[in-house]
Amino acid sequence: MFSKPSVTAAALLLIFTLGPEARAETPQSLRDPLTVEEPTHITVGPAVTVGSTAGFAQFRGEEVSALGAHAALTLRFGILSVEAQFENVFLRDQARPGETPFTGTMQRVGLSARLDLLRLRRFGKNTLLILYGEGGAGRQRANWVSGHRFTRSDITAGFGWVLDHRLNRPGRALSRIGWFFGWRFAVAPPSDMGPRYLASCQLRSSCPMSTSTAPDYDLGMFLNSGLILTW
User: Fold this and answer.
1) Average pLDDT of the chain, as a whole number
2) How far apart are CA 18 and CA 8, in angstroms?
């Protein structure tokens, strides 16, 4: 008969010899439904972006604050994305003490291309941190409280990051959900009249063309954040 110690030693030797093959597989029904086994991230498909935007814009060199919302339709092709954008922001002049702030709204439509510059997997196998750069062009339309309005084109460039999480939900179309945070810079031709000049003549039926020296271009900077949903 074998002694008890020899039986125990033989059992341990058998377990370590067989290794992973001797362990029972976890049933598929008991696995986390949000866990994805594939080692790679496939970022391909249509997406919708919604969020907020805040920053400043210049009109004939005069700076106004901007706060509003934006939305976009995106086509993702791996590290490259093409995006059609719409923004609606509220404009407010930085009034001097004792003056009433001059306000207005601005809508913008644009098209941009985004390139993933760096992808990091530091938050688990299902989450991807993407650092991106982008460039594009658009069309602005501003409406001031005085009733004056104008349109102009712009050129934009920016950068930011996306914390992108993939989902595994059988029978559901949504494949990824992410949170993005980025900066966008804009360059545009100077407007015909600045907000302070419009504020000084808003009680008139019409304003003569401003005689102040126009800058070579107007600048803008916007901070965007929100959600991106990929199908």
Assistant:
1) 79
2) 16
Beta strands in 10-126 (DSSP E): 44-59, 62-77, 80-93, 103-120
Q: Which long-range contacts (CB under 8 A, 24 or more apart) does 151-154 make?
A: 152/188, 152/189, 152/191, 153/188, 153/189, 154/108, 154/110, 154/186, 154/187, 154/188, 154/220
pTM across the whole model: 0.72
> What is the rounded CA–CA span in Å between residue 66 and residue 53?
8
Check which CATH number belongs to the domain holding 20 and give it: 2.40.160.20
Mean pLDDT of 181-198: 82
| Element (DSSP H or E) covering residue 7 | helix 4-18
Domain with 35, as residue range(s), is 4-230
Please state the domain count of the chain: 1
